[in-house]
Amino acid sequence: MPSSGGSVALRVNGLGKRYELGERESYVALRDVISRAVKRPLVRSRRRRAVGDSVFWALRDVSFEVPHGEALAIVGRNGAGKSTLLKILTRITEPTEGEAVVAGRVGALLEVGTGFHPELTGRENVTLNGAILGMRRQEIQAKFDEIVDFAGVERFVDTPVKRYSSGMRARLAFAVAAFLETDILVVDEVLAVGDAEFQKKCMGKMGDAADGGRTVLFVSHNMTAVESLCKRAVWLDGGRVVADGPTPDVVGRYLSTSFSALSERSWPELESAPGNDAVRVRRAAVRPEYGSPSDPIDVRTPVALEFEYWNLRPNALLNLSVHIYNAQGVLVFNALPYLEKVWQGRPFPRGLYRDTCHIPGDLLNDGTYRVELMVVEGSRAIYKQDEILVFEVRDDPHSRDGWFGSWEGAVRPQLSWETEQLVDENVTVGLHVD
Amino acid sequence: MSSPPLVRPLTVIRPRGARTLVGWAELWAYRDLVYFLTWRDIKVRYKQTALGAAWAVLQPVLTMVVFSIFFGRLAGVPSEGVPYPVFAYTALVPWTFFANAVTQASNSLVAQEAMLTKVYFPRLIVPLAAVLAGLVDVSIAFVVLVGLMLAYGTVPTVAILALPLLVVFAAITALAVGLWLSALNVRYRDVRYTLPFIVQLWLFASPVAYPSSLVPEAWRPLYGVNPMVGVVDGFRWALLGGTESPGSAFLVSVAAVVALLVGGLAYFRRMERSFADAV
Questions:
Q1: Over the stretch A137-149, which tens digit does the pLDDT of each residue have?
Q2: What ipTM does the predicted assembly reach?
Q3: How many CB pairs under 8 A join A and B?
Q4: Per the database record, which ranges form the ABC transporter domain (chain A) (predicted)?
Q5: Which domains does chain A have, with CATH numbers?
Q6: Rounded to whole angstroms, how far apart are CA atoms A315 and B178?
Q7: Which of A211, A339, A379, B139 has its CA 20 to 30 A from that of A75?
């Protein structure tokens, strides 16, 4: 049994998780099962089809080892299997194959706020949440003041949590989990919580954990945080390990390849293109204004979004509506072509069209953006496609002026400033002396 | 922050990891959670309902009044030499506990969805806490029973010493049924809609409004397959003394509960693996 520093804290061997389609989406009604049992002959054919068509591996053949005391980042697109991996390691769900050996207690900071009951006070919820996370009563009592202090909710400990702001609630939940003494700390995307000061506290706490000999598994879309906290990263894609190595290498490869996959998409066959009887999309692309879709975009780069689509009905009054969401799921903006000069307000004859939307440089913050396309007729959406494009806006190190933390805000405009001196203290002091 | 403990127990995570019926060691490690969840269920229930603790009394008392009027007075159902209100209320104490505990336990896993999908802990604790929380109602309802027995001058016998064991028996019965239904409820979401109906039928299949002596002797063992027959007869025997001691039907009930509990634990264990995926 490994028990000293330098040993392995976590060994994952050929881990896989299979979902049957439908199992994740919805539950079954007993009534259906009973009525299906009545119509026996139908059951068998349906079963067979289900096995063939609807098996989905969220995770497959995943193997890696984490030495005790290492901070490991897990990166990958949404749906790459990161959350499934964490859920298996924290024993929320069981793997379908393979195994993982974990040395010691595992604590999770997964989407904090879980298990809080609105009717109970902050104090009661801390106690309860601690117990849910596996803390003993004495342990919670001993850390209570520290937890409340860390969360900054001292004045409200005896107020029901339903009167807390969502920020306060999340901070308190994070604090409980952060003070849990575990050998392995699993952190999933908590940096989306709270203000800049609290985020700094969280980063500090995770850094402490790693320095204090705890093993940290960190999942985040914030590459700045990943790079500053973890020396090693594992990149998951389609449920498999694509790369495992030093963070800068892995993150670099991940950023350069995984997003290009969705920076340009085309559907040359009209019949199979996404859409309906009214419109079908032929191509969508995101590129630097003066470049091609494979070129990198940083916070300073003007960006063009292009959409090519077939209008299949005569004289349709069409409008595109584009929603841009950031990695936290915040709608950054909604753009419509109402200032477009040629076709705006005119009926579209049948044919192929291209709309280009120009996003100026120095507007988007760094991060991953998801583009949702809607085709609107009048005030009615006739077609919608979520995640038609995904693109990464990288940071521009030159525009940061020495600050390395994450840059706050949904947008990052370059605004003009003026500073004027209103009173010259030297002159004033001089006056008084006289 | 102090350093982590030096000896780290190894946990192996693999498909179909849990093989024993109950993970006792783990349950023991999480004993504080059992306590806190029970305490939360009680607290929240009494905070959220306008009637609060009075509900624990009103439910069996009002049912007793209705039963006394319709079954005791109008239908003339026999009550084995005991005043009918005392006779009915003695049965309504365990029955109300059972009905509430089973309902709460059955919905417990679905209600704790957020917790189940985010944190690991022995899942058994969730329905267990729901059943334990119901015991508070039992103790409140007992206070009324004492008053009622004093008012009617019913004197208990030595058999009353068996009462704690019978409360445990009632709790285990509720847990056994709750385990089945809570696990089924995760998988088949229409279970919750059938539940009130099941509970209602179950009430009339149990000797609550009538004595089990009304059932022909030959059918008693079969009647005992309903574990609430054993629970209710046991309560009457312990509290009212005068009635005959529970016989073969009681033993059948005990056997039925053991079978139901072992099966429930096994089914719960099997379903537990997919709770987080199905909820």
A1: 888 889 899 989 9
A2: 0.77
A3: 155
A4: 43-263
A5: 8-27+58-256 (3.40.50.300), 260-397 (2.70.50.60)
A6: 62
A7: A211
